[in-house]
Design goal:
Number of strands of chain C: 7
Chains: A alpha/beta (335), B alpha/beta (401), C alpha/beta (113)
Structural class of chain B: alpha/beta
Helix content of chain C: 25-40%
Oligomer: heterotrimer
Helix content of chain B: 55-70%
Strand content of chain B: 5-15%
CATH topology of the largest domain in chain B: Rossmann fold
Shape of chain C: elongated
Number of helices of chain C: 4
Radius of gyration of chain C: 16 Å
CATH architecture of the largest domain in chain B: 3-Layer(aba) Sandwich
Order of helices and strands of chain B: HHEHEHHEHHEHEHEHHEHHHHHHHHHH
Radius of gyration of chain B: 26 Å
Largest sheet of chain C: 3 strands, mixed
Strand order of the largest sheet of chain B: 2-3-4-1-5
Largest interface: A-B, 62 and 61 residues
Number of strands of chain B: 7
Structural class of chain C: alpha/beta
Number of domains of chain C: 2
Largest sheet of chain B: 5 strands, parallel
């Protein structure tokens, strides 16, 4: 029996191809089906929700259903964070529209999936709105975001908004079991729990973790121990380590790590803060009160990053506050 | 000294600041309108060179008012001293027809304390029978406010990097040096548009070499600048009061961005105590916020900016101990050194993003940790193949920690 | 972000007061129906005024000193290090950067003027 667990990502292999296959978003699917029966009635769409809740999957299903076998040619997938500004987005959309002009006999419109819209500035979103306006006879936009509140009102008012809620534990468990079966994996009891705990309602993360566990497990078994081992392997060590170092007063090393994040990947200050936010809850020895205080420190610097000129200065200042905080807390512990 | 050897003789040889060159030429030709011109902007971009080149062209004798020979020293004393009289000024200018008076780095000479000096120069300008040219570094011209009203202002800016590179290329050609284009770009970038220091850096890096490679630029010596910076930083960090630090900042000719980044680099070296460090950094972060606003709002915020810089350097004067400074600003160098890694990482994330329908950033955060764990465990995994990663990229992922 | 050409750009209709303020205080000129940058000493002030009028960040095209073409800063590799990006200044365009003997070309261009 061929070992296929390492030849492609399961998150892609088991991605539903049609709306019917999407298990747990009944209300959303039903509403969308109505639009799909009459494509010309479908407005622009705004999908909002946490990561791994099915937004991209549903978008691709819609494209597939509306645009036939060559749907890929008539679908443009863009990410706000990958493009260097709204002008590039506009150029790509223009190019794409031009390129697909000939096809409009066979399709109602082309589909433009724009992910991470909430990371666009208000002025970029304003420009986006204009783009949406001028191209609405030939394009439908599916905008994807985590927080719909960060989308400006003029865009929201032009879209049908769908909220993707975090998947329930049982749903994710069912999904994992179904995949495990197909992959000839034996998922032992504690393992599923551990995976659910780690993924926090993010189905994609759960599947990625499962796949990695399959590689680490032996004889096709995945037990709780394996899951915990893999979790240790995959935790973004950099960010958490940087946090821990700062809290321990090891400022200079923490700052070095921050530089690595900025210079090796080219992450912005906001990106890193976002990640710090996610990592914060995983640091077990911090009390809720501690976390609240750290959150307010992060919040202050999040704001300053937007206004300031140098992300690394703001991040360093934040790490310095964490150092002070860590030291003060240490003193409290000694008493 | 290549800065001497390649000193521009001709206006055309000065790179950059084309508008300023035109503006100055027109002013000098017309000889009416304002009697004085103030050329202001960062160091090393050609202000003084332009004055000399143009004076040569129009056959003016340049008298450098801040030269240290006795003839002009007495003159300066007369002008700047407390017993300046109108009569002495008039007499002076009558004796120097066919001359052009040059007050170089005028904001440096007089500093903040000597307001009497600025007033005296302003008077001289008003009364002068000959053209007067002044140069200054301060883009806001805070110190020189009274002067601004009576002079023709000409702004100089940092020279654009491609132009600096072009000049460095020419020098290399002349000197028979083969330099990698990227090496010249790094020197140009590091100079921040200061042509003079770029040429100095080029010269020190090429010492005894016929070939200049990118890896030779491990640490730009920047000998000339380093001394200045060392003195300035020492003054700033060892200052006992904020006022002292502020004076040191204003005296120096370094631009505020370099200051900001340099103080940032050196804060943890100055303050080892987390309490002091956090206070100092909080202040510096506010300075950075001001810096972020200055571009779009008004340059008046600059004084707050300098104040905050000074304050962050003097948080706990009693704990000062001399230390080795970090310079040049780390981030610029760090960005260069990790550039290849950054490009590689971006390429990999783009490939992952394409297959998994996510952005490069999401690929990095959501997929990379798992992919890395898988390929580390299962060396022969076919996952990289599916992503379209080549051996170099796969090896890079395997080597990540 | 709005990209403008320093030689001539259009603005939405301004009231008389705003127009006058623009001419007097923001270093902008007006001729033949087009606005242009007049005062190069204080372009930051100009950018700020335009930012307020257009509610968008403004970027000016650069003019190539060698071939005269206008181009944007956006794709330049030095963007992050350049202190004056997007200001209405001169530079060397991406095409010309690849040519040899740039300095000589620069010098001869300015000798002509």
């Amino acid at each position: 029996m061929e070992k296929t667990n390492d030849s492609l990502m399961w998150a892609e292999k088991y991605r539903p191809q049609t709306l019917d296959e999407v298990a747990n978003l009944k209300d959303i699917i039903d509403s969308l089906k109505a639009f799909l029966r009459n494509p010309n009635t479908m407005p622009h769409l705004l999908f909002a929700g946490m990561p791994g809740t099915g937004k991209t999957t549903v978008s691709l299903c819609i494209a597939r259903q509306l645009l036939g076998p060559s749907w890929k040619t008539f679908t443009l997938e863009l990410n706000a964070s990958d493009e260097r500004g709204i002008d590039m987005v506009r150029d790509r959309i223009k190019q794409f529209s031009r390129y697909s002009r000939g096809a409009f006999a066979s399709i109602p419109y082309v589909i433009i999936i724009l992910d991470e819209c909430d990371q666009m500035t208000a002025s970029a979103q304003t420009a986006l709105r204009r783009i949406m306006e001028t191209s609405s006879h030939t394009c439908r936009f599916i905008l994807i975001c985590n927080y719909s509140s960060k989308i400006i009102e003029p865009i929201q008012s032009r879209c049908a908004i769908f909220r993707f809620s975090v998947s329930q534990k049982e749903e994710i468990a069912r999904y994992l079991e179904s995949i495990a079966k197909k992959e000839h994996l034996n998922l032992l009891h504690g393992a599923t729990e551990a995976i659910l705990d780690y993924s926090q309602g993010d189905l994609r993360r759960a599947i990625n973790l499962l796949q990695t566990c399959a590689v680490y497990g032996s004889k096709g078994n995945v037990d709780e121990k394996t899951v915990l081992q893999v979790i240790g392997e995959v935790s973004p060590a950099q960010v958490q380590l940087m946090l821990v170092k700062a809290l321990n007063g090891n400022f200079i090393e923490a700052r070095e790590m921050m530089y690595n994040l900025i210079t090796i990947y080219g992450l912005s200050g906001s990106d890193i803060l976002r990640q710090i936010h996610k990592e914060l809850f995983k640091i077990s020895h911090l009390s809720d009160a501690d976390k609240a205080e750290i959150e307010s420190i992060i919040g202050e610097y999040d704001f300053r990053i937007l206004e300031g000129a140098n992300d690394d200065i703001q991040l360093s200042a934040m790490l310095a506050q964490l150092s002070r905080f860590g030291k003060a807390k240490g003193k409290l512990n000694e008493q | 000294m290549w800065t001497e050897k390649y000193r521009p003789e001709d206006v055309a040889q000065i790179v950059g600041n084309e508008e300023a060159k035109v503006s100055f030429t027109r002013w000098l030709e017309r000889k009416q309108g304002r009697k004085a011109a103030l050329l202001y902007g960062p160091a090393g971009v050609g202000k003084t060179a332009l004055v000399h080149a143009m004076s040569k062209k129009f056959q003016y004798e340049v008298i450098e008012m801040n030269a240290s020979d006795t003839r002009t020293e007495k003159t300066i004393l007369k002008i700047a001293g407390p017993s300046t009289t109108l009569a002495s000024l008039e007499k002076f200018s009558r004796n120097t027809k066919g001359s052009l008076l040059l007050f170089d780095e005028v904001d440096g000479i007089f500093g903040k304390e000597d307001r009497g000096g600025v007033a005296a120069i302003t008077k001289l300008v008003e009364q002068s029978q000959v053209p007067v040219v002044l140069t200054a570094n301060d883009p806001d011209l805070q110190k020189l406010r009274p002067l601004k009203k009576v002079v023709h202002l000409i702004r100089f800016r940092r020279v654009r990097i491609p132009l600096v590179v072009a000049l460095l290329q020419k020098i290399c050609k002349n000197e028979g040096i083969v330099a990698e284009h990227e090496a010249l770009e790094i020197i140009a970038q590091n100079s921040q548009g200061d042509v003079r220091s770029a040429i100095n850096d080029l010269q020190s890096l090429c010492k005894g070499k016929q070939v200049l490679k990118t890896e030779d630029i491990v640490q730009l010596p920047m000998r000339n600048r380093a001394l200045d910076i060392h003195d300035t930083l020492t003054q700033i960090f060892s200052a006992r009061t904020t006022t002292e630090a502020l004076a040191a900042i204003k005296r120096s000719s370094f631009d505020y961005d370099t200051f900001l980044l340099t103080i940032h680099d050196n804060l943890p070296l100055r303050y080892s105590n987390p309490d002091e460090l956090s206070v100092a950094y909080d202040i510096l972060s506010k300075a950075d916020v001001f810096r972020g606003r200055i571009r779009q709002e008004n340059w008046g915020l600059l004084s707050y900016f300098f104040g905050l810089l000074a304050w962050s350097s003097t948080v706990a004067p009693e704990t000062y101990q001399p230390f080795d400074f970090m310079y040049p600003p780390k981030r610029i160098l760090a960005m260069f050194w990790t550039k290849n890694k950054r490009i590689l990482m971006q390429t990999i994330c783009a490939k992952i993003g394409k297959k998994c329908h996510v952005s490069k950033k999401s690929a990095y955060f959501e997929f990379m940790p798992f992919i890395k764990a898988i390929v580390k465990k299962e060396g022969k995994s076919r996952l990289p193949l599916w992503f379209g990663l080549d051996k170099k990229e796969t090896d890079y992922i395997k080597a990540l920690d | 972000m709005k990209v403008l050409s320093k030689r001539g750009f259009k603005l939405p209709r301004l009231g008389k007061d705003k127009f006058v303020e623009l001419m007097r205080k923001s270093g902008i000129g007006y001729e033949d129906g087009c606005f242009f940058v007049k005062d190069y000493n204080n372009v930051e002030r100009t950018m700020n005024a335009l930012f307020q009028i257009l509610s968008e960040e403004v970027a000016f095209n650069q003019t190539c000193v060698l071939c005269g073409e206008e181009f944007q800063c956006l794709n330049c590799k030095h963007y992050d290090v350049c202190a004056t990006h997007d200001l209405p200044l001169n530079c060397i365009c991406y095409g010309c950067r690849l040519k040899p003997n740039l300095y000589d070309m620069y010098v001869s261009r300015f000798k002509e003027e």
